[in-house]
Amino acid sequence: MPLIVKRSKHEFVASNVEPSKSWHRDTLHEFYAPWREVAAMGRTIHVGEFGCFNKTPNDVALRWLTDMFSLWREYGWGWGMWNFEGPFGIINHGRPGARLEAMDGYLVDRDLLELMSGS
Questions:
Q1: 76 with 66: CB under 8 angstroms?
Q2: Is the model's pTM score more than 0.90?
Q3: 12-45 pLDDT, tens digit each
Q4: Closest CA relative to residue 59, chosen from 119, 112, 114
């Protein structure tokens, strides 16, 4: 099924995502085409409540998030993760294989922090 973007007075809603598609930077760029069109109309885009579940292998999670962050930076879009702390967050998420660093009483995923900060 193709991506369908429905427009109401104040929002755009994407639906009918192809679950069997191989998702990577190029397919994400294609997926976000309708949203880039919205941005080209002068609208501000904010990607809200996203993340990568802590049962996803760490190397896969980092590659996925690298692709997403790089595109959103390129597009000038804002974003907010689903959790700060917890299974989709950057601290105390419990994802095996993550490089954790103690910081202000939290175990911070150092690689994810660097991705988020653009380091």
A1: no
A2: no
A3: 444 556 667 788 899 999 999 999 999 999 999 9
A4: 112
